[in-house]
Amino acid sequence: MAKLHIKKGDMVYVNAGNDKGKTGRVLSVDTEKSRAVVEGVNMVTKHTKPNSKNPQGGIVKQEAGVHISNLQVVDPVKGGATKIGRRLNDKGKLVRYAKKSGEEIK
């Protein structure tokens, strides 16, 4: 299980695929498959049987996973896609930072 540059809750930019150019928040990350589910990106139609959540059943649109290599974190200061670096902060903890602005990513 490798350490990934994307975490749940990050704002990301899609740099490849049908949804290229879109941005959205990461809803979940699958580290084994190196995929992330991004809000409003890679929407698929799923046919569901009636259940307690959806008593009528039918066709539901939902997000599918996007490979992590097709995503870049959005810079918190300058906006736009940026590469991610890791460095020790003043407390000696390893933190992610945006290489474009040098700002720490929370």
Structure description:
The protein has 106 residues and is mainly beta. It has a domain of 65 residues: SH3 type barrels, CATH 2.30.30.30. It contains no helices and 10 strands. A hairpin with a 5-residue loop joins strand 9 and strand 10. The two termini are 22 Å apart.
What are the key terms here?
about 110 residues; mainly beta; SH3 type barrels; six-stranded antiparallel sheet; two-stranded antiparallel sheet; 10 strands; about 0% helix; elongated
Kindly name the structural category: mainly beta
Helix count equals 0
Name of the CATH first level of the domain at 11-75: Mainly Beta
In spatial order, strands of the major sheet run 6-3-2-1-7-8
The major sheet is characterized as: 6 strands, antiparallel
Round the mean pLDDT to the nearest integer and report it. Answer: 93
Q: Which spans have pLDDT < 50 for at least 5 consecutive residues?
A: none
Helix content: under 10%
What is the ordering of alpha helices and beta strands?
A: EEEEEEEEEE
Shape: elongated
Please report the total strand number as a whole number: 10
List the helices and strands and how they pair.
Layout: E1 11-14, E2 23-30, E3 35-38, E4 43-48, E5 58-63, E6 65-67, E7 71-74, E8 81-82, E9 84-88, E10 94-98
Antiparallel strand pairs: 1-2, 1-7, 2-3, 3-6, 4-5, 7-8, 9-10
